[in-house]
Fold these 2 entries.
Entry 1:
Amino acid sequence: MEQTKFLLAESELPRRWYNIAADMPSPPQPVLHPGTGQPVGPDDLSPLFPMALIGQEVSEEAEIAIPEEVLDIYSLWRPTPLYRARRLEQEVGTRSRIFYKYEGVSPAGSHKPNTAVAQAYYNQKEGRTRLSTETGAGQWGSALALACKLFGLECKVYMVKISYEQKPFRRSLIQAWGATIVASPSEETQSGRAVLEEHPDSPGSLGIAISEAVEDAAGRDDTAYSLGSVLNHVLLHQTVIGQEALAQMELAGAFPDVVIGCVGGGSNFAGLSFPFLREKIGGREIDVLACEPAACPTLTRGLFAYDFGDTGKLTPLVPMHTLGHDFIPAPIHAGGLRYHGVAPLISQLVRDGLMRAEAYLQNDVFASAVLFAGSEGIIPAPEAAHAIHGALETAKAADEAGEERTILFNLSGHGHFDMAAYDNYFAGKLEDVALDEEEMQRALHAIEGLPTPA
Ligand SMILES: Cc1ncc(COP(=O)(O)O)c(C=O)c1O
């Protein structure tokens, strides 16, 4: 019998995170203070983040030790399994080999606890007792609620209203881990009230929820802000995924030609791909593919520009591919991919030609998700299904070219709390929305007058 799962022992858990900033051909451009136009310093960030995370945000060290307390909690579910998708390969009749790393085995059901645990740890160590955050579909909010519970911190979650209404069980999960949750836009912050005044029926967006969570943290000494993606330190914490996958591919006697992940803010994709990019920068040939929704095509159609990370313009200016900070993506079912920007590290790597991106329509993505579930058994999160679709498209293109590829993708989470989305797909109710050019141009007006990156 040929092997299906490639497993590492707990003792093989990576002991260091990998910081790609140390190896990038073009260093990332600085984050700017919107008032002065100057790079932000630690003093600007210290009301929101603990010093250890600010240090990681700007670190030039290639490796950063993972604290024992964090490793101890990682060991609840890490190392995660790597699978050879033999049944899927047979189902589609490809000559390529398809592997996937499965992050859905964490207690919250996705990769998000990899950074939530680290962030809660550093905050507790530096004396914060409460964290505030935003969540889209609820994956991040539930991961941070869990991490706060484990470190004895209070947690306040601003959840995008449309998901708050559509996904009551993620809400319950967040509550089960002891966090307080409110639908965003809410009446509890100035940013939320401003949106409600103009749009009483606003479905919310990640950009709005971030404004609320940042405002909450900035207004209280006991509270820090915690972000589930985009920032350098968040991507750093996720690199345990790719380091494990490198070792597991070796166990499988294989090395990927193509590494694939879905991209919202970019953290799971970075987590899998950065350790492989280290090899690519070192001279190995690997194609690294980011998969995003056509309704929110940040990397494939957005501008590389300085923009705010949130709608209320409370964050610093970030150099990234963006659709404009007041862009509200269509309510597609991959809630975690509905963000107007993307991680600056990923933007820079795409600009430098080390990674590339494709955008897909949601009915195609769900068709691939159902195909995957029918052969591999796992019901994927709609976000992760973008990576499955990317892997299947890659295999198809290789077959058509008479080639054989080794493909590795990240299955960033399971979809057990997303069955309403599957219901809609089965009922033929999912709309295929590709972002309209006119709407994109309108939204991009929001960044006019902001500084231009080099
Ligand atoms: C399962 C899953 N995958 C992917 C994402 C996208 O986030 P990121 O691009 O930071 O990995 C999310 C976000 O909520 C998610 O829940």
Entry 2:
Amino acid sequence: MAGRVPAFIEARRSIRAFLPDRVPRSELDRLVEAACLAPAPHHSRPWRWVVVDAPDRKEALARGMGDRWRRDLEGDGVGPERVDELVAASHGKLTGAPALVLGCLTWEGLDRYPDEARQLAEWGMALLSLGAAVENLMLAAAAADLASCWVAAPIFCPAEARDALSLPADWLPHALVLVGRSDPGYTARARPPVPLDELRAFG
Ligand SMILES: Cc1cc2nc3c(=O)[nH]c(=O)nc-3n(C[C@H](O)[C@H](O)[C@H](O)COP(=O)(O)O)c2cc1C
């Protein structure tokens, strides 16, 4: 163990190109179960998971988030051709993945506080636990020989993602994971070594 990161941690890479093969829902369910074994504040499970594998639902989600991103980019002053290019690339990435797993947060099970600071801290804990859950999901995918990639999009437009899929009002999408069989032609980006002396201090 000393001197080596466990192989199952190293094995997970962000893979952004997939074979068109469907992933059986039973396999996707195992990934969601793995996600739900993540640590969470005071024994809550403040996550909801939406498996999106039907082409029309993927299209609806990609379009709902893409329309919002288009408006944001235009508001930022990005030129129309570049906007088209970026939105089309994102749309292709989402609809090209065999399955999307959308991680949402809910207040169910979380504590409520009368002041904003603690309320925000509670939500922050839920977000941290969602990150742990997503990592579990991707590690389980790698162990099952499935490729995955976390996509940031919904954190910028949770309401649009929720409405695109007609989700309950209290499910707030925050994390999206593409899942499928890896395109054998795809090579994961080079992974730089970890500069431990810069990133770690002894307290
Ligand atoms: C919160 C979060 C958001 C991410 N969003 C994207 C994204 O929108 N598109 C993408 O291609 N990769 C995205 N990634 C993947 C990172 O680019 C990737 O994890 C990083 O480059 C390290 O590569 P590795 O996962 O292969 O180790 C995201 C990762 C995290 C944790």
